[in-house]
Design brief:
heterotrimer, A mainly alpha (331), B mainly alpha (330), C alpha/beta (329), A: 331 residues, mainly alpha, MetI-like fold, 11 helices, 2% strand, B: 330 residues, two-stranded antiparallel sheet
Chain lengths: 331, 330, 329
């Protein structure tokens, strides 16, 4: 198991290096770092001096090495637009996005699995058919439209929930170190519901369809037939045996989808004016703020790599076949 | 195999995370792609599914409306008049113009704007799917045929890209392209190509995986060796033999990809990085309509409805196609 | 009264292109402690007969006619929950592939304890002791150690022993073993078959042994039923059916097993293949392949005809013809 984890870590490092390379290319060749640091009236000589000073005339690999070093130190450069360190911006915006992402992922997982199991077990019931059709509509509804519809119904018409923003006032935010959380106040929860639904709906339908397909597959296997032949109750067969065997693919998809959730948060954050890294990134794209774009790219890759590692470790917990054997006979 | 492949196609394009990486090729279908393709089973399942028929009809109506937007649209949304602005549905403006679905704050007729918007949605969608298909099929063939480090490199890139959602790739490519082309360039024509490229680029992986799988199977067959002897490039021969095998899966991926591309275009335009506001794309229409949802509700409502109908009908067709080509799934 | 009685069982599969009759008019009985072999090619309906008895036909398959009685009580019309209580408790089942019959995610001990707890009132601790006993009974060495292993840590033969232990959890009266040895090495095969025979001897457990391997039947069963295209072609004592087969199909099947005093050369193999369920010919289903087929075989379907020591579904053995034929042989 340790060997496997080490191999995965090496792979993860490679992925991060590739992404860092892309970010570096963006940083150095798409945007001209000098242009963005100095005014129009700077002379060519001064520019050249600055280039030399910043090491922009160094060989490629030295520059890249420096870039990686900076990333490791948590130094992502300065935003062209806000002219402050990108890492400070991330620290400001990241908690909002992560809270939103985690809440909606949990929601998608719980409801998605429940609905998937239901539609697999009651395959021919009317309600299952309705769920399957609705899920297709869910996939066809663009995230931003879902958000607009939810705001219109629950905020504008019914006045049940606030339409926008993470907090009502400063009091709703609690600071824990550099982290700020809105989830310790009632108002914070009220405000996260609609965006979380908007963001999680697509993943929910995806998980539901996946769980359904996997359940149907597992229910056809010999060991399920044998479990029935042993006289086990339906509940035990369905939830003890079938569901557990669908967990591996579900864990995979949910894990990978967490990256998707963070990306789709861009849209949700825009619609709900949620102050997260998605909005930060979108502003960066619109105004071509390359350091922010590059940092966001690295950040997303990092989240992805970490989630993947967690997923790999979860496999070992769920599936004993993957654990390395020390004792034993066998084949 | 049957179900895992379904999963892959099911989530095609939208960051489709497929752990196994199996190609969703059903059975091997040989020769006469078109003739075999529309064999009895396909038509049979089409006729038996009312929902699919409805979806096909809706899609057809939308396509006709979009293609003939110039003829069908009651007003020209590219030359709006302010005096026509904010007319409610079934209302007549100060200018005496009648608007079935109302007009927006620029004086564009919503129906006309939607027809032109559908035109954009469909053309961006089709072009980017085509681009993704050519890119994906080509790279898949290359990876499967060459093997070795070429294969490893292409598939590794595919894996990495697969973990980044299409919308994110499209946003990044969009941002970079606009920087490279100069930020001021926001004419509609350029926007079209930037969007097509960025969306298409985000969707190629699925095709590549499918085609690569099929190519690996064909690679060692004797006719490939034989082709070399008679001096035809084996890659060409393989293209002719691999393509019929992957027609089904590729068509499914393309259909579902079309829905994703349409939604992605609308989303990018909604976010303000797609078409400029002067050009009536569904995304920009909805974005503008959303701001005045309280008073002029009809703008966002009708353009949103058009977008959902389009995406839904394409998705339904894709769903049907996938099931029809994979009878084991039922 | 026999332990299990099956009368005129009929299993149907409704499909898009009409109803398939997969098991048709099958009747047999099994006594306590008896091993009944059911033999036939794949698709002959032998596995489905077993599945129908334990009430686990996959929809849309269904029992469309006939009766199944266990200890004199009908069990084919029981509500699902009552049938579930019979499964595992009174009828145990063993399936083809021991490699896939066990849930890979649970320790074998957990799976046995789970089954024991389902059918008895034992405490978990007692259930675990019972699980150990069972593992020892089916001949698993170092059971105390093995009980905490996962299925993938055991060899195929070991796994099949675990499967048998699982089927034995509640001391069932009948075990339906569907190709229990097909996936195993020959040497392990013999051990497993010996184990099944011992169960009948020691506990009076009846065994319905479904297989396509006539050799396995000859070695293990007391009586044997030969199935062809969903029907019983011949049923009788092993000695009779193997030694002096009557039905032309059985005769063909015996081609591989040496039988004294038969005209071997002409009958060592059967030409053609068993018809698919969608196009079973009129009359006797075996008629296209039968070297003795005559007019009647193409017109009417033969019912099993009672002979002195079994039944044969073949017109050659009808009344006078039967007498003549037997005398002839």
């Amino acid at each position: 198991m340790a060997a496997f984890i080490v191999r995965r870590l090496i792979q993860a490092t490679l992925v991060m290096l590739v992404v860092a390379l892309i970010a570096f290319l963006l940083f150095n060749y798409v945007g001209d770092p000098i242009n963005n640091m100095v005014g129009q009236d700077t002379s060519a000589v001064e520019r050249e001096q600055l280039r030399e000073q910043l090491g922009l005339n160094d060989p490629f690999y030295i520059q890249f090495g420096r870039f990686v070093e900076h990333i490791l130190e948590g130094n992502f450069g300065r935003s062209y637009r806000q002219s402050r360190p990108v890492e400070d911006m991330i620290a400001d915006y990241l908690p909002a996005t992560l809270e939103l992402a985690v809440v909606s992922a949990m929601m998608a997982l719980v409801f998605g699995v429940a609905m998937g199991v239901y539609t697999a077990l009651k395959r021919y019931s009317a309600f299952s058919q309705v769920l399957m059709t609705v899920s297709l509509i869910g996939v066809s509804l663009p995230t931003f439209l879902i958000g607009i519809i939810l705001i219109q119904i629950f905020a504008v018409e019914l006045h049940w929930l606030p339409p926008q923003g993470r907090v009502g006032g400063e009091d709703d935010l609690v600071h824990i170190g550099w982290w700020t959380t809105g989830l310790l106040s009632w108002e914070g929860w009220r405000r996260i519901i609609l965006p979380a639904i908007t963001l999680g709906l697509f993943q929910m339908t995806l998980i539901m369809r996946l769980v359904r397909a996997e359940m149907l597959e597992v229910l056809r296997t010999d060991f399920i037939k044998f479990a029935r032949a042993r006289g086990l109750s339906d509940r035990s067969v369905h939830f003890g045996h079938a569901l557990k065997n669908t967990l591996v693919p579900v864990i995979t998809i949910t894990g990978l989808q967490f990256g998707t959730i963070i990306a789709f948060a861009i849209i949700t954050e825009r619609v709900f004016n949620w102050p997260g890294v998605g909005q930060m990134f979108l502003d960066a794209v619109i105004h071509v703020d390359i350091p922010v774009m590059a940092a966001y790219l690295v950040l997303i890759a990092m989240v992805f790599v970490v989630v993947n590692l967690v997923v790999d470790i979860l496999y070992f917990v769920v599936d004993p076949r993957l654990r390395v054997e020390r004792s034993t006979t066998g084949h | 195999m049957a179900d895992s492949s379904a999963t892959e196609v099911d989530i095609a394009g939208r960051a489709a995370p497929d752990p196994g990486g199996k190609p969703p090729a059903p059975a091997t279908r040989r020769a006469g792609p078109v003739a075999r393709f529309f064999d009895g089973d396909l038509w049979y399942s089409f006729k038996r599914s009312p929902l699919t028929i409805v979806a096909a009809v809706v899609f057809l109506i939308i396509v006709i409306g979009a293609v003939f937007a110039g003829l069908l649209a009651p007003h020209n949304p590219l030359t709006p008049m302010t005096m026509d602005a904010r007319t409610p549905p079934f209302g007549t403006s100060y200018m005496g113009n009648y608007f079935i679905l109302g007009s927006d704050n620029q004086g564009r007729g919503v129906l006309s704007a939607i027809l032109y918007g559908l035109q954009i949605s469909l053309s961006v969608g089709l072009c980017s799917v085509l681009f993704a298909m050519v890119l994906g099929v080509g790279l898949g063939l290359l990876a499967g045929y060459m093997g070795g480090w070429v294969d490893a490199l292409i598939m590794r890139i595919a894996d990495i890209q697969l973990s980044f959602p299409a919308i994110l790739i499209a946003l990044l490519v969009d941002g970079v392209t606009r920087e490279l082309l100069g930020q001021s360039q926001r004419q509609a024509d350029l926007a079209f190509w930037v969007l097509t490229f960025s969306i298409g680029f985000s969707l190629w992986v699925q095709y590549a995986r499918t085609v690569r799988g099929s190519t690996l199977v064909e690679r060692n067959k004797e006719y490939v060796q034989a082709a070399r002897v008679i001096g035809i490039h084996p890659l060409l021969i393989m293209l002719r033999h691999v393509l019929p095998n992957v027609t089904g899966p590729v068509l499914v991926i393309a259909t579902i990809g079309l829905a994703i591309a349409i939604i992605t275009e609308a989303t990018l335009s909604f976010l303000g990085v797609g078409f400029p506001p002067t050009r009536p794309s569904l995304g920009t229409l909805i974005q503008q309509g959303q701001q005045v949802l309280g008073s002029e509700w009809w703008i966002a409502t009708f353009s949103g409805l058009a977008l959902v109908l389009l995406a839904l009908s394409v998705n339904l067709l894709g769903d049907w196609l996938r099931d029809a080509l994979n009878p084991k799934l039922r | 009264m026999a332990l299990l009685e099956v009368d005129n069982l009929r299993v149907e599969f409704p499909t898009r292109r009409g109803t398939l009759v997969a098991v048709d008019d099958v009747s047999f009985a099994i006594d306590e402690g008896e091993v009944l072999g059911v033999v036939g090619e794949s698709g002959a309906g032998k596995s489905l007969t077993g599945t129908a008895i334990i009430g686990l036909l996959e929809p849309p398959g269904r029992v469309a006619g006939g009766e199944i009685r266990l200890e004199g009580k009908r069990i084919d019309k029981l509500p699902p929950d009552q049938m579930r209580r019979i499964r595992g408790a009174k009828i145990g089942a063993i399936f083809q592939d021991p490699l896939t019959s066990l849930n890979p995610l649970y320790r074998i001990g957990t799976q046995i304890v789970e089954t024991v707890l389902t059918h008895t009132d034992l405490t978990p601790t007692k259930a675990r002791m019972r699980a150990l006993e069972l593992l020892k009974e089916v001949g698993i060495p170092a059971a105390e150690h093995r009980i905490d292993h996962y299925p993938h840590q055991l060899s195929g033969g070991m796994r099949q022993r675990v499967v048998i232990a699982l089927a034995l959890c509640a001391n069932p009266r009948l075990i339906i073993a569907d190709e229990p040895t097909t996936a195993l090495d020959v040497s392990i095969q013999a051990q497993i078959l010996a184990l099944l025979r011992r169960l009948g001897r020691d506990h009076g457990t009846a065994v319905m042994l479904v297989t396509h391997d006539m050799g396995v039947i000859a070695e293990t069963a007391h009586r044997v039923a030969v199935m062809y295209a969903g029907r019983i072609a011949e049923i009788g004592a092993v000695r009779q059916v193997v030694g002096r087969p009557r039905h032309p199909y059985t005769v063909g099947l015996m081609g591989s097993i040496p039988a004294v005093g038969r005209d071997q050369e002409r009958l060592t193999q059967i030409d053609g293949a068993m018809p698919r369920l969608t196009d079973i010919p009129r009359g006797c289903a075996f008629n296209p392949r039968c070297p003795h087929a005559f007019d009647r075989c193409f017109a009417d379907r033969p019912d099993p005809i009672a002979m002195a020591d079994g039944k044969v579904a073949c017109w050659r053995f009808d009344q006078a013809e039967a007498a003549a034929e037997v005398g002839h042989a």
